Amino acid sequence: MGRPRLCRVHDLMHEIILRKAEYLGFFHFVNREHSNLSSKIRHISIQESTDSALESIKYSKIHSVSHFNVDSLLNSFMTTLVVDFKLVKVLDFEDSLIKYLAEGVGNLFHLHYLSVKNTKVKVLPKSIGKLLNLENLNLKRSLITKLHVEIKNLKKLRYLLTYHSDNGWYYGMVKIPTGFGPLLDLQRLGYVEANFEVLKELTKLRHLRKFAIWITYGNEKDICACIGNLEKLISLTILISREEILNIESMTSPPHGLQRLRLTGNMKKLLDWIFKLEHLVRISLDLSGLIDDYIRVLQALPNLLELRLRDTYLDEQLHFKDDWFPKLKVLVLSSFEGVELMIIDKGAMPNLEKLRIGPCPLLKEIPIGIEHLRNLSFILCWKKFII
To answer: Which terminal residue of the chain has fewer beta carbons within 10 Å of its beta carbon, N or C?
Structure first.
């Protein structure tokens, strides 16, 4: 399902990879024990501490810098990076303890990739608008809540990742300013909160492939018109408060190649076009108010691999019948507070590998027929909320 996110190798193979990378001058790992740096090295990974790294890279021609398990990041180190290393193309501060980016980061003209993922950074410097070669800006799980208007100058930007999540269901939004129209190369944008003016500009982003947005009540028609122009879209997320009506009936024909869909809000009935998405492999629904038997219809989606449902089922009994979900590999059922009994017939979900159920406070026992899931490798069931 999708692209691989992690790769594990044997300890011995890991050591061979590290030594080969350093021997070829491709990569160097800097830590307290090994801080000597050849002038030929172009890519470094700093581990544990930046104290020794600062002197090591002072006279080198570094192209990329990554951090792993860094306990602290000195101000002098940040200054050295943005002042002395004009050839840097990659800056990855993921999981580090930084709280700001130096204003001088805008002088790194060759920078292609910048990540402050999972850091304490609250504001991007306005000089970010000078990074005309920037292609990937990763702000996920940072403390940034809005973007400066200068972001519109990044004409080569392809990926703008701006969200943080809680258990995969709730997302913190980032407000984007007007003037986004010139970012014609943008392929991935989310999660963002946009007003009417911004939505109109988003219709120009014809290369957008992955899009996630929080809409305010009353702007549903505008978002429907916007999405109707995004013909290359393969992943779509539309969020609104569960108490507010998710009124997107006017979207009669979504992008035909849609592979991933996530909806949150209040909706009595799923839209008919959802059941016609032949390429859909992942769907997540966090919808209050559903009254139709939507699971019976969803099971017919021919290529569905992952199904995530939260607080969307009202009946006491949940029954998965023979031949339902023939390709499904992941099933997550969260906050099914009224379900007392779950039944899995032989022949249902024959390829299921992961099953997560809960909290389901009224569920009396593990699903009946769970022994039929021959490919199941992971199961987690709980009745109450875990605090």
So the answer is: C
- The DSSP secondary-structure symbol of 184 reads T
What SS3 class is residue 380? strand
Residue 14 phi, psi (nearest 5): -60, -45
All residues at 6 or more sequence positions from 5 whose CB lies less than 8 Å from its CB, including other chains: none
pLDDT in tens, 145-198: 888 889 999 999 999 988 755 444 455 678 888 888 888 999 999 888 877 777
Query: Which run of H or E residues covers position 147?
Result: none
Alpha carbon 236 to chain centroid, angstroms: 12
Supply the DSSP string of 294-308, one letter for each residue.
HHHHHTT-TT--EEE
User: CA 132, CA 144: separation in Å to the nearest integer?
Assistant: 21
Domain count, the chain: 3
Based on the fold, state whether residues 46 and 165 are members of the same structural domain: no
155 and 183 Cβ atoms separated by less than 8 Å: yes
pLDDT in tens, 320-353: 999 999 999 999 998 888 888 999 999 999 999 9
* Residues 45 and 120 reside in one and the same domain: yes
